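Document type: protein sequence-to-structure record

Subject area: structural biology

Format: plain text, a pair of labelled lines:
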Amino acid sequence: MLGDRTNIEIASVPYEIVRLDDPEVFRYPFLYLSEPGFLDLTDREVANLGEYIRRGGFIMVDDFRTGKMLGHEDEIDVLRRYLKRAAPDRELVRLNSSHPIFHCFFDIDTLEMDPPYEIPEPPQFWGMSDDNGNLQVIASYNNDIGDYWRYLDDGDKPLKYSAKAVRLGVNYVVYALTH
C-alpha cells in the first residue's frame, strides 16, 4: 500500500519480525508493535526499547483495547508502564486531529472511526514525543488499524474505515521518515 500511494521505495520483503532484545532492532527506523496489553518484557527488552526511542526510532502501537471489557488491567496502562520504564522522562499523551502526523501526507480531519471489532469505547490516539516535540510513538487504542489493512481486499470491513486506516498508516510512515 505504501509504495502504491507514495514515492517511498519499500523493501521486497516489507517487514521483518525482530525481538526487542535483539541489536538488529536498531537497523529499523519504524517498528510496529501489536497487542501491547499482553507485553511481558524483560529488563533487556525494556533497555533496548528505551535506547531505540532515544536514538530517534518510531513505533506504531496497534490492536489494543480497554481492559475493563476483558476483566483485567487496562491495556493502555500496560503500554504506559513499559514506556515509562524505557523512557522515564517522556509521557504518553492523548492526540487530537490537529497533530501534524494527521496532516503530513493525507489531511485527516477527524479521528472518529469505528473499530473493526466490538468494544464499548471509541478509538483514541496517543503519542509520545522527543524533547523537540517530534512524535516517536503513535498508539491506536481501542482500535486495530492493522486489521483494516489485512481485510481491505476481503471487503468485509467498511471501506470508509479501511481507507482511513491506509491513510493513517501512510501518514505514520511519512511522518516517521521526515521528523
Q: What stands out?
A: The first strand starts at residue 30 and ends at 34.
